[in-house]
Amino acid sequence: MDLSTGLGLAFGIVVLCTLILMGGDLGMFLDVHAFIVIFGGATAATLIRFPLSSLFHGFPLGMRFAFTMRRWTSRELVEEIANLAEIARKQGPIGLEKAEVEDTFLAKGMRYVADGYDADFIRNNLERDMDNFCVHLDEGQKIYRAVGDCAPAFGMVGTLIGMVQMFANMTDPSKLGPFMATALLATLYGALLANLLCLPIADKLHGKLLDEETNRTLIIDGILMIRDSKSPALVREMLLAYLPEKHRHEEGEPVPA
Amino acid sequence: MDLSTGLGLAFGIVVLCTLILMGGDLGMFLDVHAFIVIFGGATAATLIRFPLSSLFHGFPLGMRFAFTMRRWTSRELVEEIANLAEIARKQGPIGLEKAEVEDTFLAKGMRYVADGYDADFIRNNLERDMDNFCVHLDEGQKIYRAVGDCAPAFGMVGTLIGMVQMFANMTDPSKLGPFMATALLATLYGALLANLLCLPIADKLHGKLLDEETNRTLIIDGILMIRDSKSPALVREMLLAYLPEKHRHEEGEPVPA
Amino acid sequence: MDLSTGLGLAFGIVVLCTLILMGGDLGMFLDVHAFIVIFGGATAATLIRFPLSSLFHGFPLGMRFAFTMRRWTSRELVEEIANLAEIARKQGPIGLEKAEVEDTFLAKGMRYVADGYDADFIRNNLERDMDNFCVHLDEGQKIYRAVGDCAPAFGMVGTLIGMVQMFANMTDPSKLGPFMATALLATLYGALLANLLCLPIADKLHGKLLDEETNRTLIIDGILMIRDSKSPALVREMLLAYLPEKHRHEEGEPVPA
Amino acid sequence: MDLSTGLGLAFGIVVLCTLILMGGDLGMFLDVHAFIVIFGGATAATLIRFPLSSLFHGFPLGMRFAFTMRRWTSRELVEEIANLAEIARKQGPIGLEKAEVEDTFLAKGMRYVADGYDADFIRNNLERDMDNFCVHLDEGQKIYRAVGDCAPAFGMVGTLIGMVQMFANMTDPSKLGPFMATALLATLYGALLANLLCLPIADKLHGKLLDEETNRTLIIDGILMIRDSKSPALVREMLLAYLPEKHRHEEGEPVPA
Amino acid sequence: MDLSTGLGLAFGIVVLCTLILMGGDLGMFLDVHAFIVIFGGATAATLIRFPLSSLFHGFPLGMRFAFTMRRWTSRELVEEIANLAEIARKQGPIGLEKAEVEDTFLAKGMRYVADGYDADFIRNNLERDMDNFCVHLDEGQKIYRAVGDCAPAFGMVGTLIGMVQMFANMTDPSKLGPFMATALLATLYGALLANLLCLPIADKLHGKLLDEETNRTLIIDGILMIRDSKSPALVREMLLAYLPEKHRHEEGEPVPA
Asked: Is the dihedral of CA C80, C83, C84, C85 positive or negative?
């Protein structure tokens, strides 16, 4: 569970409800027109923009991954892999079968090693899995960004439609208020969809994509080293050396000022 | 048929009609002024921006390609080419003549092989075809993007012209409503043309251009290998090895979470 | 004559006049205030932005080149050069003097060859000409783009000045209309100058710059090959091989779908 | 203490207060709605955008570093390191223990040298510290920039919410004023948060990040040279040679015009 | 004196005054509120954005350099250096002391040669001068661009503050005019500061930075060749060969169409 995504969304909803309830009732801010134009318009534009297969894979994967989190940092992952290397050295590859591994990708690799597949098969299969996963995660990121980019425009479209209807039927200017309020809701929905939901999620997915690429490459390298019966110390040292700077020191060592 | 483009457009039109009919009649949203300023202005700016020959080739090709789709993914294409290699090995190049090939580009290459042209001739002709096609597809993408970029500006121009006429003739403020509604239509048309039609189509064409470059390079390589009487297994293996990561695993294998 | 630039401008003017005349008279849209702020402001900012020499060379060259067009495509140019190589081989360099060459740059090179200048002299002179030309064309493109970028801002400046004067003198709100109409004209002028004239012309000049660099490099290479008495067939083959993909197949061969 | 950040903030507050007090009382510009929407919205979006750990490290480090300043320029740092080399040569590494070094990063390195750690240990430890520091500083910069990018959008959201409530409850247009004033405050808060605080701080942090990377690399190189008992003159010369151009002449030598 | 900067500014002021006087008196456009918010706000944000030392060096240097101009083009500079090489060959380095050299940077180099400093010293000193100069010019460019980027935002801040005060105190809508006029002045000031002054000056400084880098590199190379007693012809030829294309043909040779 990625706490900050959930916290952020919950906090955003609380903020919105507080604001709305401070100045009136919630119903004033619900409007089926605005809902149709924003969600309908963004859906239509996104359908045209991407192939169907990207949408089916990227959209739900992106949403799921924005809320879930790798249990370990790169550094902990290296320790975990070194532990597995220790087990493999003491008990042989068979021992890996009984090891409990939470990360599904690492677990899959361990099973391959325990089953005695050769290195090429393992590398090919895991790399295909990883490519497949990263392509879908990147598609997810692009879809959320595309929705975030067009939502404000459809907000404006909704408000314009509302204003055209309002002005065309205008007989008594003093009755414009409620119509204007409704027309503005579409712009509000568009701004919220873009700035509170889609663009932040696209940014988070982009960060996660970079992290997963590092971590899965790390896991593949580690698994192949375990298959070659490298010593746990060597596994740890080589994996740490491969880490890009950013991941080498993720733990909060005190920062010298 | 590219389902998502058609679906998206149809859905967009349904959304717009629903919104319009919920708040009044459709006629209120039809205005010849707004139509002239958006389509006339965008046409004028696009004519100045591009050479005539780009417009004639790129515009219709782009529209056609946004709605059509390659029948096979890269992976299926490799299988198809491997099948053709099988036929060529069993029946000789002559056998290719009778093979049914749906993709016109692949079919053309097969005919060349069946007719016994030499490798240089085949490569030159197919690469020229492919370059020609990709140049026109890229021009199409640029034209749709340029129209999408200038449409909102011409929407503003149309609204400004309407407002100038409205204010200049203003005698009774209470009669402003219908004029204002008409003036706003140009901005609405511009936003819809850009965000619902042109920019999404430009994005889709960009994605298709990348895919077609991969697929046609694949076909050319495959055809030349068949002409050199390579074994079907080798053809399949080498073509798969050439595929960029993204295309290697297009099929929806279950994504490891 | 570049048809599309002229057509686009003419069409843009027709569209504007139609719109204006449909809603009133033309005089309503002419305002000396708006004219001064847009053209004065854009001129002032452009003077500060560029050195005087760039403005003197780039501005008129850009305008001229947006409307003129190279008579031949790269492919035809290669044929023309091959014909000249044929003449040179049959009649000797002297024969080139009598050959009619429409392109002034090619003609200049031919005269150098006919006069028997050495290859270094010819290359240096023609490259200097070409650099000089491309630098000025690029300056022209940058100037039109800079004007197009600042014109909407000066449109806003003009409208703000008009609104400040209107509000400061406001006594009777019902008389605001005509003042407001005039104030909005500056924004209208700025949007038109940018989106109908300057930005499209800058884009077209950018495309022409890329084409001219290819064509003039082609001409220089061809002239030097003629001076070295290469055979026409070799000239044609080598020049075609040098062409970047895009220019190799400019002619509209049927596009395979 | 980085004078310009403090001065800028103080000056900004003075300017705002002056403006506000010239036209009324301060209370008119305080509004809990606007405060909630801007700070709540920006917090929610930032929580979604970044992982919690980046927020905890990057945010306070960025704020602290925007206001503090390295006491020395790169050039002075080279002198300081050369002085320490002098001490190390005269008194042995032990002498470094008593040397007073203000910069905590340099001090840490000196302690390592005095304690006789080997070069690899020193380099590894200091580089890990430096990477760690730079990653957090970069995260800080990105967080401030992300807040600055979304604050105006939440300002618009706040104003839209206010206007919807205002229009929905509108009975007497003449009483709209105070509601409108309150609604506009959110836009004002958003613009100030972005343009007066977050974006300038992000820019300053970006500049400091570049400087710190240079300076800490310089310190690590210098400490290792001192550990190798290089002569002070050589240390000075080599460190100056490593400096990128910009840092070589930071001192205000008269600029030739 | 860089004519175009001065001309542009003068022309811009004339345009503004004409517009203002055509529609009323100048006093209507002077407002201390707007002045404070634009200049105060931009100053505060710029102080936070840059270190004090950059501001002290870059700001005045940028302003000075926007208005001054190198007396010679690169081509003329080569001639001047070749003339000095001629003098040095005829009269020995001593002769350079009496040569009148207007360019202060070239003059400084000549003095070094006349005084018999060795090549390393001369190169080091001149390169340090040049780096120093270019760093400050680049800082100047960045400062003007940053001011130009934030000025419109502070214009909006000023207008928002004015509108909040206006709406909060609104009792009689018919008296809103003068308050609205004043509020809009801040937006007007911001747009003018950005589009008429800061952004064009930043663009001009960017162009000058590129030119000065070329010219000063040219001067340093030339001075070192003179110190090595190279022949004037060789100096001219080598310097011309070093020139980037753009500077080789600055003089207005007739452009072939």
From this structure: positive
Given an 8 Å threshold on Cβ–Cβ distance, is C24 in contact with B50?
no
In angstroms, the separation between the Cα of residue C145 and the nearest Cα of chain B is 12
Residue C174 · residue E209 · CB < 8 Å? no
Contacts for E148 with CB less than 8 Å, ≥ 6 apart: E193, E194, E195, E197, E198, E199, E202
pTM: 0.85
Is residue C178 over pLDDT 80? no
- For chain E, the C-alpha Rg in angstroms (whole number) is 25
CB A75 within 8 A of CB A248: yes
What torsion do the CA atoms of B5, B9, B15, B16 make, to the nearest 10 degrees?
Answer: 150
Q: Which two tokens stand for residue E118?
A: 């060795």
What is the rounded distance in angstroms from the CA atom of residue A169 to the CA atom of residue A165?
6
Nearest to C4 among B40, B48, B129 (CB): B48
* Diameter of chain D measured on Cα atoms: 88
Residue A98: other Cβ atoms inside 10 A? 9
Cβ contacts below 8 Å, chain A against chain D, sum to: 152
**Predicted confidence (pLDDT) per residue in B189-218, tens digit:** 999 999 999 999 999 999 888 888 888 888
C23 Cβ contact list (under 8 Å, min separation 6)? B33, B161, B162, B165
Name the residue type at position C63.
M
Phi-psi region of D51 (alpha: psi -120 to 50; beta: other; left: phi over 0): beta
Four-CA torsion B20, B23, B24, B29, nearest 10 degrees: -40
Chain B neighbors of A67, CB-CB under 8 A: none
Q: Which residues contact E3 (CB under 8 A, 6 or more apart)?
A: C52, E69
Q: What are the pLDDT digits (tens) for C106-142?
A: 888 888 888 888 888 888 888 888 888 888 888 899 9
| Cα distance between residue C84 and residue C91, in whole Å | 10
Which three-class secondary structure state does DSSP give residue C101?
A: coil
List of chains touching E (3+ CB pairs within 8 A): C, D
- Kindly list the residues from chain E whose CB atom is less than 8 angstroms away from the CB atom of residue C48: 4-5, 8-9, 12, 66, 196-197, 200-201, 204
Q: For residue E51, is it left (φ>0), alpha (ψ between -120 and 50) or beta?
A: beta
Q: How many CB pairs under 8 A join D and E?
A: 154
* Helices and strands (H and E) in chain B: how many: 12, 0
Q: Taking CB atoms and an 8 Å limit, are B253 and A36 in contact across chains?
A: no
| Rounded CA separation A209/A201 (Å) | 12
Q: Between chains, do A7 and D47 touch, taking CB under 8 Å as contact?
A: yes
Instruction: Tell me how far apart the alpha carbons of residues C101 and C108 are, in angstroms, rounded to a whole number.
Output: 9
Phi, psi of E176 (to 5 degrees): -70, -30
Rg (CA), chain C: 25
Q: E109-134 as b/e, with b when 16 or more CB fall inside 10 Å?
A: bbebbbeebeeeebbeebbebbbbbb
Selected residue of A3, A7, A11, A30 to mutate for chain D interface (largest D Cβ count, 10 A): A11
D29/E36 Cβ within 8 A = no
pLDDT recorded at residue B129: 85
Tokens of C98: 């009598």
What ipTM was estimated for this complex?
Answer: 0.82
Q: Where are the alpha helices (DSSP H) in chain E?
A: 3-22, 32-35, 41-49, 52-67, 74-91, 93-98, 104-114, 119-168, 176-192, 199-227, 232-242, 245-248
Contacts of A70 (CB under 8 A, 6+ apart): A103, A211, A212, A215
> Closest-CA residue in chain E for D24?
E165
Chains E and D touch (3+ CB pairs under 8 A): yes
